[in-house]
Structure formats: C-alpha cells, structure tokens
C-alpha cells in the first residue's frame, strides 16, 4: 500500500503518534470528508456523486426519522446532564420525542416504506427512549455531547477529515448512540471505520489516546433491548485509515464515479437514486 505524501502524512500521523493538536485555522477552507461520505463512496461511487457532487437528497424513511429523533432525544437529556448530573424524567423525554417526531413528519418529505405507520413508529420510539433511559443513561457521565472535530490532513490534500462524537464521557471514553433493527455484532464493530475516525480525531485534536470506544445501542425488537459493546483502535489502525482516505480522496478528485451494482444497497428499496442510475440503463 502506498504511503501518503510526506506533507499529508506528517501533520495528521504525527498527531496520532505524539498527540499534538492539528491546526486548521489560518488557511483557506477545504472540502470536508466525513465518515458518512467516505462510507458512501466506498459502497457506491455513483451514489456519492449524486448526493455530494450534485447535491441530490433522497427523502428519509419513517424508520430513519424515528432513529434521528431518538438520537436528538438522547442528546436533549445528555446536554443538560453535563451540568445537572441527573437524567431527565422518562415522561419528559418521551414527550420530547413525540413532539419532535410529529414536527419532523409535518415539515419534511418522508417516504414511508411498506408497513410503516406513523403511529406505530411513534409508539416504538417512546419504547426505545424508555429502554435507553433505564439501562444505559444512568451510568453515563457526559463531558461532551454532539461535539464536532476537524483534522487537517495536510496543505496538499484537498479535504479535511471531519466528524461528530455523539458522546465523550468524563473519563474520555467515546460512545456512539445507535438504534438497530437487529443485534449488532462485535466483529463488525471492531472493523467499523467510524470508530477509527473517532479515535483518530480524538488523538489528533485532544493530544491523548482515548481510554475506550463504545457503542450504546438499542435493538428495536418487540420489547426494545439495550446493548453495549466495547472496541479499541491502535495507532496502526489510524495510519491505515489515513492511507485509505488518501486513496479515496484521489479517486474523488479524479471525477470518475462508477456504479456498484453488487450488494444489498443496489436496489429500488435501498437506494433512492436507483431509477436515475440502474433503472434507466444508460448510467446517467
């Protein structure tokens, strides 16, 4: 695997090795590359082109809105807990979820999938809030909530690496809040690029190695279940990620965005650009 150019590697990799903060001020603003963008490009470059080059957005499904509002509800609780050191009452959090969910459906274009009904999604959402409030939230001691970070990857590289930590606890542990339709697997978490980006961002901007990485998940079964899984990353993992970002950045800069028809993601159900791409058969 090719090494990154010295000017690209030295700033970000040295920050990983030494814990130095990476400066981003005092120079022209660059394009941003996040985990979501990188993951979409790796899955299907054509999908990335539609979303991030042409700016074509796809209406979310009901489940996506539900998960997003649940995420906002957890944030609502944790932000006040930074100062109060106490969780909000469950009823207050559920009322917040219902209000935000109704508001989202009223102001946004939402594509309800077969079987999705607003009332059912709302009831399931309040149950998810309850499961998290009971099993996970009491032990959490938040320091940072929805905290943005930026890593400068070098003057000659066209992107900054950006991200958002859902939660950083007082001991420095980074946690991500997720709602799943099925049980998350440890092996998937251990290779998840999002957590490698979290670790790289923390080391580069905070000057220390994070003491732990964790996922706080709610599995959306009939009776929602709370699950916590732990993982870790080495400096070698972070350097591997830097190399991948370099290669992906070069590919994006080339302007070649081919479709990837292999896999679950390429179907009318899971890709909102399918008709525009595969359905027309001409690729454009």
- Output mean pLDDT: 89
User: What's the helix count?
Assistant: 10
What's the alpha carbon Rg, rounded to whole Å?
A: 20 Å
Number of strands: 6
User: Between the first and last Cα atoms, what is the distance in angstroms?
Assistant: 33 Å
Write the H/E string, N to C: HEHHHHHEEEHHEEHH
Shape: globular
Low-confidence stretches: 1-24
Key words describing this protein structure:
single chain, 284 residues, alpha/beta, six-stranded mixed sheet, 10 helices, 6 strands, 16% strand, globular, disordered N terminus
Describe this structure in words.
The chain is an alpha/beta fold. It folds into two domains: 6-11 and 23-55 and 142-254, no CATH class; 62-139, no CATH class. It is built from ten helices and six strands; from the N terminus they run αβαααααβββααββαα. Strands 1, 2, 3, 4, 5 and 6 form a six-stranded mixed beta sheet that branches. A hairpin with a 5-residue loop joins strand 5 (213-219) and strand 6 (225-231). The longest helix is centred in the N-terminal third of the chain and has 23 residues, at 62-84. The protein is globular. Mean pLDDT is 89; it is low at 1-24.
